[in-house]
Amino acid sequence: MTTTSRTNTCDRCDRKTEHTVRIEVRTESQKEENIKFSREPYRVSTCSECGTKQVQRMNNA
Ligand SMILES: [Zn+2]
Questions:
Q1: DSSP 8-class letter at 59
Q2: Ligand 1 center to residue 6 CA distance, Å?
Q3: Ligand 1 centroid from CA 47, angstroms
Q4: pLDDT exceeds cutoff 70 at 1
Q5: How far is the CA of 1 from the centre of ligand 1 (A)?
Q6: Could you tell me which residue, 7 or 57, shows the higher pLDDT?
Q7: Cα 54 to ligand 1 centroid, rounded to whole Å
Q8: Cα distance between residue 49 and residue 60, in whole Å
């Protein structure tokens, strides 16, 4: 698993903070609502200040 560190804007801190970023590919859905997101790569970035996670899909097309 690749983990990188980068500076992102945190909505909760309302400023730029250091984030831990890792890529996840979810191969199984946890809820019915997530089925459309299954098997797609996500970028999960966690604020090192407040711990808030921001999840973004990699392919925004
Ligand atoms: Zn934060």
A1: -
A2: 13
A3: 5
A4: no
A5: 23
A6: 7
A7: 10
A8: 27
Hunting for tokens 């909760």 — which residue is that? 12
Q: Tell me, in angstroms, the distance from the centre of ligand 1 to residue 61's CA.
A: 27
Q: What is the pLDDT of residue 37?
A: 56
Cβ neighbors of 31 (< 8 A, separation 6 or more) are: none
CA of 44 to the centre of ligand 1 (A): 13
- Say what the pLDDT of residue 29 is: 56
Taking the centre of ligand 1 as the mean of its atom positions, its distance from the CA of residue 48, in whole angstroms, is 7
Is residue 17 within 8 A of residue 8, CB to CB? The reply is yes
User: What are the residue boundaries of the structural domains of the chain, listed by start?
Assistant: 3-57
Q: What is the pLDDT of residues 30-56, one digit of tens each?
A: 565 555 656 778 899 999 999 999 988
26 vs 36, more confident? 26
Rg of the chain taking only CA atoms, in angstroms: 13
